[in-house]
Amino acid sequence: MRYPLLIALREFAENAKTKGFWIGLLLFPVMLVVMIQVPRFLEERATPTRYFTIVDQSARFEPVILQGVERAHARRVLEALVAYQARYADPDRLPQAGDGGIDLEDAPPGSLNPAEVVKRLAEDNPEMLDTLQQPDGLALVLAGIRPLLVADAPPFEEPRRRLRKVEIPAGVDPSAGPDQVGEALKPYLRGEERVEVGGESKDLFAAVVIPADVEEHIIRPGTLQSVGWDREGVRFWSANLADDDLRDVVKNSIDEHIRAEAYEARGMPPAAVREIERTSVAFATFDPKKAAGEEVVSLADEIRLWVPVGFVYLLWIAIFTVAQMLLNNTVEEKSNRIIEVLLSSVTPGELMMGKLVGIAAVGLTMIAAWCISLIGVVWYFAGPEAEFAQHLLDILADDRVLIPAFACYFVFGYLMYAGIFLAIGSVCNTLKEAQNFMGPVTLILMVPLLTMMFIPKDPNGTLAVALSWIPLYTPFIMMNRIAGDPPQSQLIGTLALMVVSALGMLWLSGKIFRIGILRTGQPPKLLELLRWLRSS
Amino acid sequence: MSGNGNSNAGASASALVLRSVTKTFGEFTAVDDVSLEVPRGVIQGFLGPNGAGKTTTLRMVLGIFKPTAGSILILGRPSAMEVRDRIGYLPEEKGLYKKMKAWAIIAYFATLKGMDRRSARRRAFDLLERYGLKDFANAKTEALSKGMGQKVQVLASIAHEPEFVILDEPFSGLDPVNQQVMEGVIRDLAARGSTVLFSTHVMQHAERLCDRILLIAKGRKLFDGSVAAAKATLPRRVRIETDDDPAPLAQVPGVLAMARGAQGDGAWELRIRENADPQAILQASFAAGIRLRRFEQLDPSLHDVFVHMVGDEAKEASFR
């Protein structure tokens, strides 16, 4: 055992010293931070203030649109408030139901993404939005939240207004026909001319042109207008088609307004309608496999369902990275001819075992570092993601299958692929030669990545079961299926097949390794390989 | 456990015994029925042209290859793996881990040979200092020159003070100064009591260093014995200069031929049969009253022996 251990130690020490190892180690948390920070940054800073103008010849909808823009802003303020409260909430002063605070625990069950929860909560809260739209509404709400926060919470920063109305440019005659107005606006919209805002000149982002006879272009079911393409109604002009925030606000606020009018015309007060629209049935998903009284599927359950997918991905990256290291390293030893000195001191078997163990230790170190940094980063950024991380940790702590399964599939998956890569490394003299062999192996390895997202939807379907019985795929596919409670027989059967194949693979690659490692010149042809396998 | 002085295997008088060793790769016979006995404590040269089967033989000795036929006893054991801690090996193709420091590589190979990590480290620094590489102890091997790298590798192969050192082409790639250093290393090893087996196709080194040589070509043994015995297999030459007529000397028993030498007036060269005594010519000169201005006994060099024994085959091999 002494020799493999010495070799493993060296492999570990030398690989842990390489730049590649540290880059791999640090890249992951850095990427996480970037992935979290960049969208936030873009959201906050990179979206410029959009200036738009309204030419409302019908004199009906301009206040409606402005009201809609205000509401959209109020919604963003509310979202920011919810996130702010979640981040700085004092755990000792949790809000009580009905005291006006924003309570995440009220989140509708079954929703997966915490950010989605926040958004839904913010949208489904018209009273709060009404409050925020009043002049001193924000101060009022903040005063309400304040006692629930930790003492040193920083002051709340109101999100910037992203949509601002400007006056109709001087060169545009608002009383001309809508077509002419559009024509006159074009230079502004194309950026050839700019508009004055508070002494600064700005690009005009969009213009809304509403003709005087817009009433005739309201589409009502059963009438002629509802058929075909009517371009005589509200005209939304913009050179930027990608940013549709304003477009949605304009369309939705006008639609809501005319619907409210229609309700009223039929004798229904708008307040009643709004109440009716928010009426829904309590809805919960039940899982027959869970204990009595706990069958309700919660957020945690949803996470639990998807955690294996994350694990499959981790497994895949880990196995691929580590096996690649093993390959590089074997080719290096071979091309440097160090192998001969090694083989005068240790047997090929000992050498192989040492390398397998040493490199696996490198890989495990990397995985561990990734997991720790994942938790650390999520923790640091707190916010709604922290809830998610907490659920994740709870699940990992509670579940008795996940971690052992991951460990088991890692070990045998690694041994299997390590065997292949070692054999490839031992017959190649340069990395370039090795790349040729790597092509097909990489192709084989792509399959579990492609099926990763589908398998949880039908974890015991034909495809999943068939792939499970292919030993090269067993670790990934079975990890993928684990949340779907695969039949015991398959669990044990595929495990046994995988263990046998992994050991067989190692035995075969040991034979190839022993012959290949001392060989120079062209890599052997397949036939030659088969002869080696038979001869030794 | 250090490599030195394991007494239970000391019972065997020979460091290495090969008995009719043969190795074939498919159709090709790399080593054909080679036998050899290397006594302990000698420097054994292993000579042969390129492609003679030297490296294959050494790999069999080390247990990296299994012989197709025949048997090998190394330090009294049938398998080199059993006594691997007492053997040092420098392969023909030199290479080191590029990213490792010089001392670390020497220490690593020493630990693989059974030394504990601390003494291996100390030994590494000692050796580097002794062979003038002290300043490079902490350099990564990729930063070393070829010669220095090769020295490091030699040191790595002998750091554990092996009883039996096998060096495959230790001089190749070294400049004359470092070849001298390498010769010094081999003499040091022998002085310490180690058995050294080294292969080379440069005869000067073998001539200066070896107690015994084994000469093979195309996998077959051509000669096995002391250097003197090897030289004795060639006819010798004697060069004389005289103003008298040397004709009577052609009649001396053992003289095969006599011809004018290239050195000018009165220079003659005599070829005498191998194992004949050149002194007989001197005596015959006195007896015949031939006055010699010069009498020079030209021993064949090992190079001559080599060329004589394998010349044709070597040429053949080099044009293949």
Report on this structure:
The complex is a heterodimer of chains A (536) and B (320). Chain A has 536 residues and is mainly α. Chain A has two domains: 2-33 and 291-535, no CATH class; 49-277, no CATH class. Chain A is built from 19 helices and six strands. In chain A, a hairpin with a 2-residue loop joins strand 3 (195-197) and strand 4. The longest helix of chain A is centred in the middle third of the chain and has 37 residues, at 299-335. The radius of gyration of chain A is 32 Å and the shape is elongated. Chain B folds into two domains: 8-230, Rossmann fold, CATH 3.40.50; 235-299, Alpha-Beta Plaits (2-Layer Sandwich), CATH 3.30.70.100. Chain B is 32% helix and 28% strand. Chain B has nine helices and 13 strands. In chain B, the strands form three sheets. A six-stranded mixed beta sheet of chain B has the order 5-6-7-3-8-9, sandwiched between helices. In chain B, helix 2 crosses helix 3 (117-130). The radius of gyration of chain B is 24 Å and the shape is elongated. Mean pLDDT of chain B is 84; it is low at 1-11. Classes of the chains: A mainly alpha (536), B alpha/beta (320). At the A-B interface, helix 1, helix 10 and helix 11 of A face strand 5, helix 2 and helix 4 of B.
Strand-pairing-aware structural class of chain B: alpha/beta
User: Whole-number radius of gyration of chain B?
Assistant: 24 Å
Task: Work out the count of structural domains of chain B.
Answer: 2
* Total count of strands of chain B: 13
Broad shape of chain A: elongated
Q: Strands of the largest sheet of chain A, in order across it?
A: 2-1-5-6
Helix content of chain B: 25-40%
CATH topology of the largest domain in chain B: Rossmann fold
Please, what is the CATH homologous superfamily of the largest domain in chain B? P-loop containing nucleotide triphosphate hydrolases
Low-confidence stretches of chain B: 1-11
Approximate shape of chain B: elongated
The fraction of residues assigned to DSSP E strands of chain B is 25-35%
- Kindly report how far apart the N and C termini of chain B lie: 47 Å
Rg result of chain A: 32 Å
Count of individual domains of chain A? 2
Q: Give the helices and strands of chain A as they follow along the chain.
A: HHEHHHHEHEEEEHHHHHHHHHHHH
The first-to-last residue Cα distance of chain A is 24 Å
